Protein 1
Amino acid sequence: MYQDLIGEAQHDPEVAVALNRRFLEPQTANTLARLRAVKDQGQLAPNVDLDLAFEILSGPLYYRLLITQQPLTHAYIDRVLHALFAGMSPRQQTR
């Protein structure tokens, strides 16, 4: 059903607004809050752009959902998170 809503939102501005308000905005806010908490705990580099991190995280999930239609399994999501956090984790200074 979510795929259908996204498809319809491409042609119907009212559906697009409703989809954004009902699904995308709350999910974005929730995910950014979680990323902010992880960053505040020192698990991400201090200069990480959280908005960009959210987009990088979301991209593979929407790609699977909308393009390849492969399942969004917990294992796949864990792989995406691992790759994302590995790239954004704080680096030790080497001298």
Protein 2
Amino acid sequence: MTRTRRFDLIAFDWDGTLFDSTALIVRSIQNACRDIQVAVPDDQRAAYVIGLGLRDALEYAVPGLPPERYPELGARYRHHYLASQHELSLFTGTLQMLRALKERQHFLAVATGKNRRGLDDVLGLTELRGLFDGSRTADETFSKPHPRMLQELMAEFGVDPTRTLMIGDTTHDLQMAVNAGTPSVGVSFGAHDHESFVPLSPLFIAHSTRELHDWLLNHG
């Protein structure tokens, strides 16, 4: 007997959830600060901003910088990130998980703090073609935790909040789900301490991609 599917639309964060990029993002923020000779945030502060749009992220990571200097900081961040982006990869098991969900005929989407160009660069990889049905980025709608990304994706696919699941590695992701009225799942192997997820009531916290895969196939 075929089990009834619980969610029609599953939206994933990108960095730190599907893509093993947390350490590079932190290092790129810190190196950008060194380049323009401003205070360098520690690892925890730099990691906290992952998932936000770039301007929001930099304003949190480096508070008090004159507004006209944030574009300079952003340019140096992009320089460092792009210089090493080729070293990054999906977490082990991610492709198998996504393919299994596609076989179950879920709509799959990405909701990310990356910009559209950055996301399209990675989604253009041959191994990912055809796996995602839609995506939203921070430069084309509101940044997390505003619910607009999820609201637009739900409208695009005609899916109700109760039939939509948001998966992410930060409180920004899970708070966006709360704000959109959708259930969520947290992953502990990204940017934020999973204990900070508890007040946001995720259905599950996965400590590996394998755990996430198994939970989704059994409960999604």
Protein 3
Amino acid sequence: MTVALPRLEELVLVHDLPIAAAARLDLLLERFATDPQAPTTVTAPREGADVHVADSLVALEVPVVREARRIADLGAGAGVPGLVLALALPEATVGLVESVGKKCDFMARTAEAMGLTNAAPVARRAEDWPDGIGVHDLVTARALAPLTALVEYAAPLLQEGGHLCAWKGQRDPAEEADGAAAAEATGMALVEVRAVRPWPGVEARHLHVFCKISPTPPRFPRRPGMARKRPIVATS
């Protein structure tokens, strides 16, 4: 048990989760604090309750996130938000898409310790995962890449009608314009940009939600790295 447990109990009540979920989230924060292989710089449990858990759970304010049943969490890293959403959505399966083997090992061990049978690492890049093409109803991405790249990564993995939920901070008109250009090129469309407040005092935080409205052209996904090296951008 960590000092974060009271805050976690508050969060699970706010998001209408079973109170027992707080202890399993507490275990996640304990692993961040004690496992030397934990791939995160935020290791203090009380801080992690906000930065890791509250920031993940705030996506449940978006109905399509709560309704998702097959999720791909891109650049899953330490398992946030993927492991948190897997706990919150036990009827969903979550692929923790991460190309770094050590991070995958950490997530696998942590998922087992948390008793999660609906989340597993996928040791691939999003652009190089043929089994993931067209089978997801939700893609999540937090602290990973500019919107133009996130939209390009997500579109091939989504079935039509599926959604991308991307965590961002302060709104950036140029980044959003590039994201819109990528959406137009890949069969996606912006649904909403939702201002959220995961914890008191947090600076600007937004969830960008896109929907796949038409088939993604066959030239996507491009080769790994191309979405960042040669991004789709808005024309001036």
Protein 4
Amino acid sequence: MAHDEYAEIPAQSREVGARLAAERQRLKLSQMQLAEACGVSKTSQVNYEAGRRAPDTTYLSAAMTAGVDVMFVISGLRHTSSANHDAFVTIPLLDVKASAGNGTLNEPEAEYAVQGLAFSRAWINRRGLNPQQLKVIEVRGASMDGVLSDGDRVLIDLSDTRPRSGYVYVLRQGDELLVKFCQLLPGGILRVSSANQQYASYDVQLSDTSDVQIVGRVVASMHEW
């Protein structure tokens, strides 16, 4: 029965699906990972690759951002420069600053991309990161000296918001953005601390405030000399 159902799918649809699957495998992504990057369910991804459904323009646009050679998927032809294009992904640099100090004020409306920084797609895939969940912002202040310096740019994974000891996070506290070590203690207490011992650590009872939010985890930093 499954074979008969497959035979009813037009050859062109099967070929598009096969090329989409080949692109996903080239990027070393699972069906679930590519589906999440493109804003669809895994079932939709499976149907696209089987040729049972045709991906729409919204999906194809997101797939292109994730590194899929959409021209190849649709036509079977590749751009001669696609190898270089596929090697890197551009991550938005936001016009905000996270304070490694006592706090930098940032209005939510100010969070927009002013430019982008290129990262190796192989490195991103190897780390299991989703490009659509990554942003770059700038660090200000001295509280993380020894780990991060004033002016460093940091890559943030917005999907990782559960504090773990030893990791650095960007958190929003009221209207301030801070870059700090964050640790979740028993009783729903968030301990916020700095690398620079001149800055005292402090605890936040999460159940008593809605003004503190973990924005994401710092997964890389870029230091300019």
